[in-house]
Amino acid sequence: FGYHANEYLDRYAISSQKRTWNVGSDHYNLQLNSYAVDIATNGEEGDRVLKYLMDKFGETFTGGLKNIYRGGYRFQFIWKYPDHYDHIHIGVKKTY
Questions:
Q1: pLDDT tens digit string along 48-91?
Q2: Which strand (E) or helix (H) includes residue 41?
Q3: What is the pLDDT of residue 96?
Q4: Which of these, 82, 87, 81, lies nearest to 9 by C-alpha position?
Q5: Could you tell me which residues come within 8 angstroms of residue 16 by beta carbon, excluding any fewer than 6 positions away?
Q6: Separation of alpha carbons 57 and 75, rounded Å
Q7: How far apart are CA 22 and CA 6, in angstroms?
Q8: Start-end of H helices in 1-96
Q9: What is the torsion angle, in degrees rounded to the nearest 10, for the CA atoms of residue 81, residue 86, residue 87 and residue 89?
Q10: What residues contact residue 79 under an 8 Å CB cut-off, 6+ apart?
């Protein structure tokens, strides 16, 4: 997703990936079955990026928190939600 966002925005847009804090988050570096990126964006640009990503899944979503389950993975999108107004969170977690 990061690659597609960078291509769509014509710039490097990833502002966060794995980190040592946020225990329980897909970002947490000891969370071995998940991964997350944040795409730095805001306002109407963020809305366009989110729509682009949702189109890839054949889904609609304009903001809040959305989980999509496909092929043994949970894809998590967070946008226009507390602490998520300057980036879109995309988490991916292997489900069993």
A1: 999 989 999 999 999 999 999 999 999 999 999 999 999 999 99
A2: none
A3: 79
A4: 87
A5: 27, 36, 37, 38, 87
A6: 10
A7: 25
A8: 2-9, 43-57
A9: -20
A10: 46, 50, 61, 63, 64, 88, 89
* Entry pTM: 0.84
Q: At residue 1, does pLDDT exceed 60?
A: no
CA distance 46 to 18: 21
Residues 6 or more apart whose CB falls under 8 angstroms from that of 58 comprise none
Q: Which DSSP state fits 22?
A: -
Kindly tell me the burial class for residue 49, based on how many C-beta atoms sit within 10 Å of its own C-beta (0-12, 13-18, 19 or more).
buried
Contact 77, 65 (CB under 8 A): yes
CA nearest neighbour of 7 among 63, 61, 42, 53: 53
Q: Is 16 helix (H, G, I), strand (E, B) or coil?
A: strand
